[in-house]
Amino acid sequence: MTSTLLNRKLGRHFDLIDTNGDGKIDQADFDLIVTRLSQEFGQAPGTPKHRALTDAYAALWSGMQQSMDLDSDGAVSREEYVRGLESNAAAAYQEYLAPVARAILDFCDVDGDGRISGAELAGVHRGLGMAQHAHDAAMRTLDLDGSGYVDEAELTQAIKEFFSSNDPQSRGNDLFGEL
């Protein structure tokens, strides 16, 4: 069973990717996230970055549907989501979440310097439907070296911690805003 902290984090993430608030995640939710991020960063459909992000989210959805959609209704409920990540977080991270993180980093790295500025991360957070105060909390804790940027190592560490750590002091806890 997951800890209360991990349940809160998974619930926060579920709410972000359940873009229409219907209590389930399906392909349409991921399509809307890609659309929002594309609008935020001015990426037209068909561009290499857009295709890479679309493909990463499609693979994430396919993996989620195969491993989490226990009732085969074509969607993943909150309970299925939490149970699926609880039982398979490490494998899910390696197979699906890490490629999405890499695609997001590439997608929003507007200046191509291999890291995400505070402004670029704010665009990602807006694309995910997060409020400014949630972005501010995330940036304060994600920028491990105080550079004003989040690099791939910092983002990767935060994602791993968010989806697996029960440590209340983990910096990854605030990946999607303060809990």
Automatic annotation (TrEMBL):
| Record bears the keyword tRNA-binding | no
Keywords of the record: Metal-binding, Repeat
Q: Which Pfam families match?
A: EF-hand_5, EF-hand_7
| PROSITE patterns in the cross-refs | EF_HAND_1, EF_HAND_2
SUPFAM superfamilies under this entry?
EF-hand
EF-hand domain location, by residue? 5-40, 130-165
A molecular-function term among this protein's GO annotations: calcium ion binding
Q: Which PANTHER family match?
A: EF-HAND CALCIUM-BINDING DOMAIN CONTAINING PROTEIN (PTHR10891)
Q: What is this protein called?
A: Calcium sensor EFh
Q: Which organism is this entry from?
A: Actinorhabdospora filicis
> Taxonomic lineage of this organism?
Bacteria, Bacillati, Actinomycetota, Actinomycetes, Micromonosporales
